[in-house]
Description:
The chain has helices at about 15-30, 45-50, 60-65, 80-95, 160-175, 195-205, 215-225, 240-250, 290-305, 310-325, 335-360, and strands at about 5-10, 35-40, 70-75, 100-105, 125-130, 140, 150-155, 180-185, 210-215, 235, 260-265, 270-275. The protein has 2 domains: about 1-100 and about 270-360, 3-Layer(aba) Sandwich (Isopropylmalate Dehydrogenase), CATH 3.40.718.10; about 115-250, 3-Layer(aba) Sandwich (Isopropylmalate Dehydrogenase). It has 11 helices and 12 strands. By secondary structure, the protein is of the alpha/beta class. Manganese (II) ion binds near residues 242 and 246.
Amino acid sequence: MTTNKIAVIAGDGIGKEVVPAAIECLERIAQLHAISLEFTHFDWGSDYYGEHGRMMPLDGLEQLAQHDAIFLGAVGSPEVPDAESLWGLLIPIRREFQQYINLRPVKTLDGVKSPLANKEPIDILIVRENNEGEYSEVGGRAYRGLPHETAVQETIFTRLGVSRAAHYAASLASSRKGHLTSATKSNGIIHTMPFWDEVVEETTRLYPDVTLTSELVDALAAHLVLKPWTFDVIVASNLLGDILSDLGSSVTGSIGVAPSANLNPEGDFPSLFEPVHGSAPDIAGKGLANPVGQIWSGAMMLQHLGHPAAAEHLELAFESVLREGLGTRDVGGPSSTSEFTAAVLAAIDVLEALGKAESG
Ligand code: NAD
Ligand code: IPM
Ligand code: MN
């Protein structure tokens, strides 16, 4: 049996609650599917910063590189400026490990109340470019505190960066309904966006079964609220994809359910799996956090590691608990984080018994 080596960084805030919950579920699934998962826990994050003045050790990335995948909770604390915490841990991992795809499914879940009045099933994959764009390191602040204080940040798109995101998205669309929507803002204001459009169009032409619609992001955001069920795959730049993924998850009911996979598709480096949400300091430590985004990210990790049956088993388990109305408070249910997790563990066993009964 091959061992899958997983680096775990629970991180900050509710990351410390939802990561242990998801690991309990992953361990149970691994046992039932005879998969060997070896978890190594790293106490990096804002508490570590308080002690050591950095978010992770100097050789942190080298330590992570020894693993098959990284399972992360959230990074960010009111005690540490976000610029320090994020550029000190999450962003270097995404960049150094060339995790240039941030794949964020947006899907209706039975039992999760959507704020939309008119509901049809939603099933969207957001492909967010994850290494460049608006999140560039080029820029800075000058003349602090003076009237002419200035802040500048360049947006950087490269042909390689845009085309590989577009390839990934078009290929996904081609395996689904064949609709690709590209989020743009090319109506003469943002100089980089016509380049994004050109490269996305050129790339998508290589996929004759995919229809591309470039949509101005402001209209796309409205469309995502009014008719989300009409989308299939959305490809977006780093910042636009970030915003659209919080919007998308809220349209399905809660940011607490949204998963994500930060992928290095070539497999040269470990990929990272984390929920879309952050450390939620407003509810941290209260047992209120919804662990679905983290558990679902765990299922995406199992899929990535080559265990599709285990991934599906885990997804069916949390879906069945939600369907029974036993979600956490953010989705209108009665459960605490630990009550929900216990229900998922029970559902994993029930599904296993049903599967055995059917096959036996
Ligand atoms: P957030 O996602 O942490 O919280 C936004 C709102 O959603 C809050 O009201 C919160 O209570 C709620 N929420 C989030 N996750 C939930 C869950 N699992 N269950 C129930 N409710 C949930 O965003 P924020 O408040 O803007 O950011 C807090 C910190 O997290 C900041 O430091 C930010 O930079 C960081 N952050 C980190 C990541 C990451 O690690 N990938 C992502 C987003 C934000
Ligand atoms: C996310 C987060 C991060 C991002 C922040 C915390 C840097 O919002 O993972 O969606 O913008 O990528
Ligand atoms: Mn975000």
